[in-house]
Specification:
single chain; alpha/beta; seven-stranded mixed β-sheet; 11 helices; 13% strand; binds pyridoxal-5'-phosphate
């Protein structure tokens, strides 16, 4: 290890599980064939691809031909939005209204904005409550005859809140509108079922659940109109041409299986640690608030705002004190723009600029949490006086 800092940023990324790495290893060497080749080398690689697709689809309660492997969560979100909206426009020109929540990941928000600004789609933001959650009744009220697609994040990366995906799915299905959910964070902590949730498109990315970076998948329900974003070969039903990244596809399937299998045993441990962390922060630090829902949130996710404090300074001081945390948004040092998600849940600028996200993972322990709670009061005090 280069650093012995305590890692509390598992929502940003996770280390690759050693079983996942071992499962991938042969496909860099011995089994290097191109799955499209007719010879044995190719067939062996194709078998690995078929098995991986089966694994991912069965976890989601989908069919193998409904899984498209992509380069990650961002590409899955882009393919879901651009692919379906372009295909629908080709069929029925008046389907041009798009509903998203104001707490989507950048991969959805900026894609939707680009579609509105450059391609003439009408983008409307759904209302959210103070925890950043969408109400299915509001989705029903906002859907119009010209609505093409609804996209609502399953569990928010910044503030951890979980949305009522099943109820929103039922509303969209009843109204005949396509429903996409970004489940990139949720995939690490909740069992996913695209049938029960009546989801048409669902995005996942491996590096948020102990798989490698640069690989993801999009579930596309059979019959959903969708265009690929690139031209090329017939790989991934023609939706994602180019020779498949076999080792990484094996990796995402293995990581997804391991993660989903351990949910039942690990969730309670995460909730205990998370709630100890949340109550420790709220009880010992002045002028702090929890962001996101207190209970309906990712089991490993705690997020806060501190009044009159620069979130980036706090992160730097925490790093020096031995802890790797996040502000929760992609806002980097030097751009003091408050997060859109925090503004959408009604926080004032002076609160929103002081955000902190602490996310737990497989290696997190009670001791990590206690040590964090010991140093935080002084670090916050220092950050406020800087
Ligand atoms: C990380 C993340 C993404 C982007 O996924 P990448 O694989 O990093 O491209 C999209 N949505 C959510 C909710 C995320 O947390």
């Amino acid at each position: 290890m280069l650093t012995d800092n305590i890692y509390l940023d598992y929502a940003a990324t996770t280390p690759v599980d050693r079983h996942v790495l071992a499962a991938m290893q042969p496909y860099f060497g011995e089994v290097f064939g191109n799955p499209s080749s007719v010879h044995r080398h190719g067939q062996e690689a194709e078998q690995a691809l078929i098995q991986a697709r089966k694994k991912v689809s069965s976890i989601l309660h989908a069919r193998p031909d409904e899984i498209i492997f992509t380069s990650g969560g961002t590409e899955s979100d882009n393919l879901a939005l651009r692919g379906t909206l372009f295909a629908l426009r080709q069929r029925r020109n008046r389907l041009q209204h798009v509903l998203i929540s104001p707490v989507e990941h950048h991969a959805v928000v900026s894609t939707a904005r680009h579609l509105a600004e450059e391609f003439g789609y009408e983008l409307e933001m759904l209302p959210v409550n103070e925890y950043g959650q969408v109400d299915a009744a509001d989705v029903a009220a906002c859907i119009r005859p010209e609505t093409a697609l609804v996209s609502v994040i399953y569990a928010n990366n910044e503030i951890g809140s979980v949305n009522p995906i099943r109820e929103i799915g039922a509303v969209c299905r009843a109204k005949g509108v396509l429903f996409h959910t970004d489940a990139v964070q949720a995939a690490a902590h909740f069992p996913l079922n695209v049938q029960q949730d009546q989801v048409d498109l669902l995005s996942i990315g491996a590096h948020k659940f102990y798989g490698p970076k640069g690989i993801g998948a999009l579930y596309v329900r059979r019959g959903v109109p969708i265009f690929g974003l690139m031209g090329g070969g017939k790989q991934e039903s023609g939706l994602r041409p180019g020779t498949e990244n076999v080792p990484y596809i094996v990796g995402i399937a293995e990581a997804f299986e391991i993660t989903q299998d351990e949910i039942v045993n690990c969730t309670q441990k995460f909730i205990l640690l998370r709630d100890r962390l949340i109550s420790g922060v709220l009880e010992n630090i002045p002028r702090v608030r929890l962001t996101g829902h207190p209970v309906e949130r990712l089991p490993n996710h705690a997020s806060f705002v501190f009044e009159a404090l620069d979130g980036n300074k706090l992160l730097m001081l925490l790093d020096m004190a031995g802890f790797s945390c996040s502000s929760g948004s992609a806002c980097k040092t030097g751009s003091p723009k408050p997060s859109e998600v925090l503004m959408a849940i009604g926080l004032s600028r002076s609160w929103a600029l002081g955000s902190l996200r602490v996310t737990l993972g497989r290696d997190s322990t009670e001791e990590h949490v206690e040590r964090f709670l010991e140093v935080l009061p002084k670090v916050v005090k220092d950050a406020r006086s800087l």
